[in-house]
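Hi R.,

Here are the chain sequences for the assembly we discussed:
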Amino acid sequence: MKEFDVIIIGGGLSGSSTALNLSRKGYSVLIIEKEKLGNIKPCAGGIASSMKKFLPIDIDQAIESKIRNVEFRWKSSDNVIADLSGESPFWIIRREKLDKLLLNESQKYGMEIVRPAYVEKIIQEDKTWIIKCSNQVTYKSKFLVIADGSQSQWAGYFNLGPRKPKFANTIAVRLKGLGDIPKDAVRFEFGFVKYGFAWAFPLKDSVNIGIGTFINNKLLVDEELNNKIIKSFGFEDLSFKVVQKKLRIWNGIHKLNGNRVIAVGDAASLCDPFLAEGIRPSLISSHYAAESIDQCLSNDNYDLNNYTALINDEWGKSMAWGRRIAQIFYRFPRTGYQLGIKRRTAPQRIAQILSGQMNYEDIAKRVIKRLLTYSDS
Ligand SMILES: Cc1cc2nc3c(=O)[nH]c(=O)nc-3n(C[C@H](O)[C@H](O)[C@H](O)COP(=O)(O)OP(=O)(O)OC[C@H]3O[C@@H](n4cnc5c(N)ncnc54)[C@H](O)[C@@H]3O)c2cc1C
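And here is the predicted structure of the full complex:
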């Protein structure tokens, strides 16, 4: 039976970046991934460049566009443009490339991967996890990382994250050509989609288009509406195949670790409940998961509680405000658009959120301060 320091279930962004963070430190790591190599990921690939500090590798090869403008529209008009000043603060990466870069790099440090294979049974024996896999092989490890994404089977099994996960519904399509999206701009389209919005993020030679709904859980299978949205982004060819995905979004402060087990990324329900941003929390959680496991392995202890505290502090506090903002904004989107996005200072704030310089907590505090100042005067 082959033994590892750490076994990671899931080889997506969170699994592969946790693997690289750990294998670079010299630990033996195995990833168990259920899919074959090379499937397209339903992810638009928008990432704040400030996340460099959480990326264990230079990802230049995976960056396809550097974004200078963010455009918001209400039903194809009434637009607001936020200028992202400074050194390309927002990038569009091709997700398949990013995941592959991270996996290849960690393999250089000795990381092993089995795919396609899924975990059938996990048994805890003294200080060891015994993992039985669909490839009829059994593996052993000291630590276990749950990185099996939004459809996670194992986060609930170990009581990690919310007992009742909350989901956004998304559909995604990648279309050839750029339509009328400039190569250095992203567009958010409000007003067409109830309880959500549509987006278009340009790659080098194609556009990732998506629709997300954040409050009610109906699936987005309205072909007429989808066509209208695709057209609003400047595409005429309507023969496309969409991918639907339920995205686990942040739903309260919860424990994200157990005894020698930790959940990262979507499996930990970390996605932003307002904008569906999931790359940033995946990278942050992978970074801290590796740090916490490293602390345990090098000090021969098993206390991972510090991980939950760090993630809740660094990400959860802001998401608590993000969830409140989402609940108001998506219920009253027209008013939200007028008061939130069309405000004079909004473009600058939006740019600061997307580039990671500001979070929802900062925004909420500013609004509260403004309201208090009004009521005092
Ligand atoms: C349409 C869409 C657009 C998005 N756009 C953006 C964006 O522009 N910016 C942004 O920040 N975020 C975006 N997100 C969110 C982002 O894609 C996710 O947050 C991110 O993929 C999370 O990475 P992950 O590794 O946790 O999960 P995943 O990438 O889903 O990886 C999980 C992996 O685990 C594997 N797996 C699952 N179950 C098992 C099992 N039982 N055994 C073994 N392996 C298993 C899966 O095959 C998969 O490879 C978007 C999401 C969607 C759906």
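Residues 167-248 form a domain with the D-Amino Acid Oxidase; Chain A, domain 2 fold (CATH 3.30.9.10). The mean pLDDT is 90.

Let me know if anything looks off.

Best,
T.
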